[in-house]
Design goal:
Alpha-Beta Plaits, eight-stranded antiparallel β-barrel, 9 strands, about 20% strand, globular, metal-binding, EC 1.11.1.-, Dimeric_a/b-barrel, Dyp_perox_C
């Protein structure tokens, strides 16, 4: 059973005479091992999601409503400092996902003349199903000059090789890539922002924020208990997504194994991020019939245009009275379907974003796409290549950022830390 611990309780405990909470106490307070099928039962909106387990939380965990994603550049060449920071990050993450402050002395419990051990904006808020998911980018293994800064270049997995350029990409380097990443998901945006802010504070002098992205209104379901949400184009998104309850599919398509060639990644996975800007105003002037033809699904039910209900398999061979396929050859659902991509499946976990408007008064809005997979070059790449070459939806979207990260297995207990298998 997950424990809900208020920050008010922590402040009382860490005040006069209470002293520091040891790392082991965090395990006793908030952490239970999660099984491989964790995520099949959704906690309440204020509950804590267990931090420790075989796999990191925030992957098959039922997708929360809010996102704060951040990519970091490592600004030190000192391996010991980096490892120390990762240990500090892990302890802080375990505390914050349990509803505690980032540090034992908290936002107001420490010496008045010293900076607080927590930024304080989440005081009084519950855990809100916060999950923190950590990853490493290819640039951590060898920098742009080819240097092996941390003695780990030989341990870079083949699956982490750079993604190819896709037709139509308009990538901005300053919001792409990154040495490290953290995905914070929660039901309360302030809880997610608080978590990222504190990790950046703890990492000062070791890492700097390369870019970050806020997201809302999850655009995928990662559990069969969740209804399919809608993207900003108004269509249900992720109907055919890999679900946590599909244990055989999850094993085969999501989790890396030692047999894949990198022992330290066994039980981990790989994350692809793509920031996709939508030309909302042009889309809104497009007829309903054309919108549905582009997606290959009806806008209301989300059913394939070949007939049936939302979760019925599309019949790509079915034709209309004119002899043409009811689902066009360039329809999104056809091009993204596993049968068009050698059986490749992804676990999508994207979010809508609105970053204000541009100088012409158009919404800077779209989808922050995130997908988890066992090998992005065998799963994401063929799907995206197919879409980039043929998808008529490309007339209304533009890919402006891209990232690829290795997501290590879960943290076993309070003595373990993020990335221990890589640096240990």
């Amino acid at each position: 059973m997950a424990h809900t611990i208020s920050r008010r309780q922590l402040i009382a405990a860490s005040g006069a005479g209470a002293g520091l909470l040891a790392a082991g106490a965090v395990g006793a307070l908030a952490v239970e091992a999660r099984s491989e099928t964790a995520g099949t039962a959704s906690p309440g909106p204020h509950d804590a999601v267990p931090f420790y387990g075989e796999h990191q939380a925030g992957i098959v965990t039922p997708a929360q409503d809010r996102l704060h994603f951040v990519a970091f550049d490592v600004i030190t060449d000192d391996r010991a400092k980096l490892v120390e920071m990762l240990r500090d990050w892990t302890l802080a993450a375990a505390r914050m996902t349990a509803g505690l402050d980032a540090g034992a002395l908290g936002a107001v419990g420490g010496p008045a003349q010293a900076p607080p051990q927590d930024t304080g904006e989440a005081l009084g808020l519950p855990p809100s199903q916060l999950t923190l998911t950590f990853g490493v980018g290819g640039s951590l293994f060898r920098d742009a000059k080819g240097r092996d800064r941390f003695g780990i270049a030989a341990r870079r997995p083949a699956a982490l090789e750079d993604l190819p350029h896709f037709p139509g990409d308009a990538l901005r380097p300053e919001i792409s890539g990154g040495d490290l990443c953290v995905q914070a998901c929660a039901q309360d945006p302030q809880v997610a922002v608080h978590a990222v802010r504190n990790l950046a504070r703890i990492g000062m002098g070791v890492v700097s924020v390369r870019y970050s992205q806020l997201g809302f209104g999850r655009t995928s379901s990662t559990s069969t208990a969740q209804a399919t949400p809608r993207n900003l184009m108004g269509f249900k998104d992720g109907t055919a997504n890999l679900k946590a309850e599909e244990t055989d599919q999850v094993r085969d398509h999501l989790w890396a194994a030692a047999a894949d060639g990198s022992d330290w990644m066994a039980g981990g996975t790989y994350l692809v991020t793509r920031k996709i800007r939508m030309t909302i105003e042009t889309w809104d002037r497009t007829s309903l019939a054309e919108q549905e033809a582009i997606f290959g699904r009806d806008k209301g039910e989300g059913a394939p245009l070949s007939g049936g209900k939302e979760f019925d398999e599309p019949d790509f061979a079915k034709v209309g009275d004119d002899g043409e396929p009811l689902i066009a050859d360039v329809a999104h659902v056809r091009l993204a379907h596993p049968t068009s991509n050698g059986g490749a499946r992804l676990l999508r976990r994207g979010y809508n974003f609105v970053d204000g408007s541009d100088g012409l008064g158009r919404l800077d809005a779209g989808l922050f796409f995130m997908s988890y997979q066992r090998d992005p070059h065998k799963q994401f790449v063929p799907v995206q290549r197919n879409l980039a070459r043929h998808d008529i939806l490309n007339e209304y979207i533009r890919h402006v950022s891209s990232g690829l990260f290795a997501i290590p297995p879960g943290v076993r207990d309070a003595a373990d830390y993020w990335g221990a298998g890589l640096f240990g």
